[in-house]
Structures are given as structure tokens and as C-alpha cells.
Design brief:
With 240 residues, the chain is of the alpha/beta class. It has 7 helices and 10 strands. A 6-stranded mixed sheet has the order 6-7-8-3-9-10, with helices on both faces. The protein has a 4-stranded antiparallel sheet with strand order 2-1-4-5, covered by helices on one side. The longest helix has 16 residues. Bound molecules: adenosine-5'-triphosphate (ATP).
Length: 240
């Protein structure tokens, strides 16, 4: 397989507005690709197109050599939205075991997924009684338990304490090392340095498709946030 995800000339409108302006890029397999940029830049919209739940105006999105959203991808692509997508009237363990069963996985694998996100101690609690950060983590566990080949995570570390963030990033790297392709959005630039590759989105345009080292070089700064701002200003000068 070449790229895990290929996006070609993707244009998306939401409501009356064009929010993605003809994006093209490829996501390599077995790596963590960060989708970064300011709020409203189109990260969620792009992720929705990759998992096949976004109406696209034109262009193509291919995932694991299939059209995005193809039924055959259902068990091969995992998606964790920003809002928790689990049953709040079930316990943490019941949710994990339910999603495990849907993917043909065992209760033991469900419990392992809970441990991976640091929720083993909360397994008996009802989801509705959990904090926002814990609810995000149970959503993540329910996606992990299916062992998808492509995992699309929309801001998975929002609201998490620093220790847990580091643990989750270690987990993402372990998954990538085992062959999983991860696309992880964040608007926190310090997470950019943890990615193998970066896609920087601003106002629906791709500002950069590079590694953190390339971004530092092209943006003339060791600080990734500053490098990103320099790239934005470079583009504005070219456009002027
Ligand atoms: N349901 C919708 N209807 C109309 N416009 C929308 C809808 N959802 C998002 N948009 C618009 O599409 C643009 C891109 O939004 P999107 O949620 O993809 O950005 P984002 O980079 O993920 O932002 P954030 O980091 O805040 O989640 C924004 O201008 C937003 O206002």
C-alpha cells in the first residue's frame, strides 16, 4: 500500500460557505499525522471527509485504497469526535464491552482498552457521572478496542492533565509503530512536535504539509508556533 489516505482537490461547503478550498495531500501509513491550525480552520470538516460523513462538493478522498465512507471501511477506520459518543446511561466497562462486541473483540480486549486510556479504576462508574476529560477517554477506548487500521482523533487531549496527555501520546506512537495510521487534530502547537508529519490548516487552506523539522526550517524558527506564523505571513506577502 502507498498512502493510507489520499485527498485530491477536496472542496467542501458548509451552509452557504466554502470551508475547504481544494486540498490535496497524502497521509503515510503507520505514522502520526497532526492536523493543526486555528479554530475554525477546517480540521473537523477535513476529518469528517476522511471518515466519509461529510458531503463534499468536489474532489476525492481515498482511504486504504477505497473511497472514504465505503461500507468495507467500517471496521477498518475509527473516528473519535470532539463530543463524547458513548452511552451515558451505561458504565464505562459496559460501553467498552459493547463496542468490543460490535467489532468481534473480547471482554478482555475491552478491559485492556480501558487500561490504555487510564480508566480501569473508573470501569464501574456510569458515564454520565464522569468528568468531560474522562468522557473523552471512554470514547477513545471504544474506538481503540476495534483495532482500526486508520484512527482519526478530533482533539483527543483537550482537557486532559499533562501526565495523561504524555501517556496518550506514547500510546499513539505505540499504535503507529504497530502499523496504525493516526490522524490527530489539535489547536495546541506544542503537540505538533509529537507528530511524524504535520498538516497545517488555516481558513480552509493547507499552509504546510511537512515534518516538524521541515516546518522549523521553512518557518525560520525552532518554535513551531512562531514557524507557523512566519509561514502564514510569507503567504500573505506572496498574495499581496
Ligand atoms: N454545521 C455547520 N454549518 C455551517 N458551517 C459550519 C458547520 N460546521 C462548521 N462550520 C464552519 O466551517 C468552518 C470550519 O469548521 P471546522 O469545525 O471544520 O473547524 P475546526 O478547525 O475543526 O475548528 P475547531 O478547532 O474550533 O474545532 C468554520 O468556519 C465553521 O464555522
Amino acid at each position: 500500500m502507498g498512502a493510507a489516505v489520499t485527498v485530491t482537490d477536496l472542496v467542501v461547503h458548509r451552509g452557504p460557505r466554502r470551508v475547504l478550498h481544494g486540498l490535496s495531500f497524502a497521509v503515510p501509513p503507520g505514522q502520526v499525522t497532526g492536523l493543526l491550525g486555528p479554530s475554525g480552520g477546517g480540521k473537523t470538516t477535513l476529518m469528517r471527509a476522511v471518515v466519509g460523513v461529510q458531503v463534499v462538493r468536489s474532489g476525492e478522498v481515498t482511504v486504504l485504497d477505497e473511497p472514504a465512507g465505503a461500507p468495507v471501511l467500517r471496521h477498518r477506520v475509527g473516528y473519535v469526535t470532539q463530543a463524547p459518543s458513548v452511552y451515558e446511561d451505561l458504565t464505562v466497562r459496559e460501553n467498552a464491552r459493547y463496542f468490543a462486541a460490535l467489532h468481534g473483540m473480547s471482554a478482555r480486549e475491552a478491559d485492556a482498552a480501558l487500561a490504555d486510556v487510564g480508566l480501569a479504576d473508573a470501569a464501574g462508574q456510569l458515564v454520565r457521572n464522569l468528568s468531560g476529560g474522562q468522557q473523552s477517554r471512554i470514547s477513545l477506548a471504544c474506538a481503540l478496542v476495534g483495532a482500526p487500521e486508520v484512527l482519526v482523533l478530533d482533539e483527543p487531549t483537550v482537557g486532559l492533565d499533562p501526565v495523561l496527555r504524555v501517556e496518550l501520546w506514547d500510546r499513539f506512537h505505540a499504535l503507529a509503530a504497530a502499523g496504525t495510521t493516526l490522524i490527530v487534530s489539535s489547536h495546541v502547537m506544542d503537540e505538533a512536535s509529537r507528530c511524524h508529519r504535520l498538516l497545517l490548516l488555516r481558513d480552509g487552506d493547507l499552509i504546510a504539509d511537512s515534518t516538524p523539522a521541515e516546518l522549523r526550517r521553512d518557518g525560520r524558527s525552532d518554535d513551531l508556533e512562531e514557524a507557523f506564523l512566519n509561514l502564514v505571513m510569507d503567504r500573505q506577502e506572496v498574495a499581496a
